[in-house]
Amino acid sequence: MKVFGIDIIKGSVRSRTRRPVYALARVEDGEVQGVEEVTGFRLQRLLATEEPDILAVDSLQEVAADQRELHVFLQSLPPATKLVQVTGGEKKESLGKVAARYNISFNKFDPYAEARTTARVAALGAGVEVIAFENTTDIVVSRHRSPGRGGWSQNRYVRKIHGAVLQKAREIEGRLRGAGLDYEKKETKAFGGFSRVAFRVKAPREMVPVHSSRGADVQVRVAGRQLDRIRFEPLSGRPRYLIVGLDPGTTTGIAAVDLDGNLVLLTSSRQMTMSDIVEELYRAGKPLIVASDVQQMPYSVEKIRRAFNAIPYTPKQSLSVEAKYDLTAPFSYTNDHERDALSAALDAYRSLQNKFRNIAKRVGAGYDLDEVRARVLRGQPLDTVLADLQGVPAAKKEAKPAAETEPERPVEDERVMALDGMVKRLRSYVQELQDDLRERDREAEQLRQDVRRARSAAERKIRRDAELAAKDAAIESLREQLRGERRRSRRLKKRLERMQKVAKLEVSEDYTPLKVLDSLTREAVRALQEEIGIAGEDVLYVPRTHGWGRGVVKDLAGTGVRALVVGGEPPDPHLIRAARESDLPLLPAETVRPEIRGRTGAALTGALDEAIAEWEEEQKEFRREQEAERVEYLFKEYRSEREKEVRRGG
Predict the structure, then answer these.
(1) What distance in Å separates the CA atoms of residue 314 and residue 318, rounded to the nearest whole number?
(2) DSSP strand E in 469-614: where?
(3) Is the pTM of this model over 0.70?
């Protein structure tokens, strides 16, 4: 089997300027043939030339930026070449973890080493095949050139092209029949033959004996039908080995870890029967060891163990609650049943860790460590397992000639005494070790209690800090509200002072108070309303009329303002007309001669009354002119309608 493994050295498939450059490793029959640096274009040419069985990557992002590009890349691969992602499908893991299952180590920062490792683990059966096409292939035979407008020989030219399409379609149909494939055909007739023939073959692309090609008049496109979603299928059909912990009862807890201690399954249910438990474990993998957290394995756990022919494991003494908490601390669980099941599985894994390390040291690179460990735990010798996995029968040991038996010598009394003394010394040494072990157990329990007390103190401190932080946030929020209320109080105080000034002016009979309007706009009116207010019979002073509008004139007239004093240049005639239409007295500052101080001012009452009286006289004249214009308009309209009736009547 030939395997290509690639890893990006520089560049990216997402970049338009720096296209990726790959490290390419070739592995053939388990041996690394070499590693070289190739561009994406050269990689495509090598794949088309050598047609390897597998192209292995550690991430699909190295060959395609999105799903559309992935379909294009898979379409360009030779039909017999599989694209394999060695780090898994939906649930990915690192290349280091995958390589560790086969006892392979590499430099993670060297792309050439990663390419070699990717190819080696793919050759050993790791990873998943990327499948993006259905088991249906579309073949389209069509024209490779357009007939165009043509000339004298146009008909002969068109017949030649369409006849070539017809001939090529018949040739492809003969190949499909010869291969015994089912297909559907759709033809588009044209002058002299067919302009397009489409075949839908019910077979994957690698089984179709037709390839994409282009000729002078005809082109053939062969493509598999795309799936709605990319599918991943494991290269190896062998399930992974598991260490299973079970906690039977009203609520059954199930936990499973792999032979590296990684959590694979953790669940619990009140409604699971024996067959449901077996089915759940079968979906997760192949149980190698079934463990319990008590010294005597329950009968229901034993039945499940026998169903899988698994190795039993029980602790020397039933696990305490503290020991279960210590074992399951790195993991999260939802109830005590899941905790007990998980602690049983982890305790079984912990008891085998040293054995697994020794096996890994003695096994060379390239072996499936899970399979080796499983067979060794089943009782097979390591040398036999390695020879079996390598495909070489174990060497038969040559029978050695039996050594001649020496004549028995009489046992001396001194030798017996020496051995008795050694036994006594060893017994005393064992007693000392047992005492030391009990002392260490007491120290460990004391340390656990200290840890629990420290953890409780830390939790109390965290809760206190959280409460203090919440109170600090509340205090800061109240301070911000206080600052806002103080600003509002200052604004109201200033507004009260201005209103008091206006009230003092209103008390005087000789002067009439004025309220200063910054400009004749709605924003200025709104600001004055919020600051000191605008009421009926108020007299407003506006220093300039730039930006005025009919809407603001109507708004001021609607508030019942007595008059509007305009300063600066003479007002716009259109403004005067809008004021007269709204019946809002518009007085020039020259006639009133106001005295302005900040936001307020005053004017002589007599001058103001005279100006208003003069405006009202002019307003009466304006109303008379408007009425005359309206009567004249009605007369003209009547005369026009009358003339039309006379013309119609003849």
Answers:
(1) 8
(2) 511-516, 539-542, 563-566, 586-588, 595-597, 600-604
(3) no
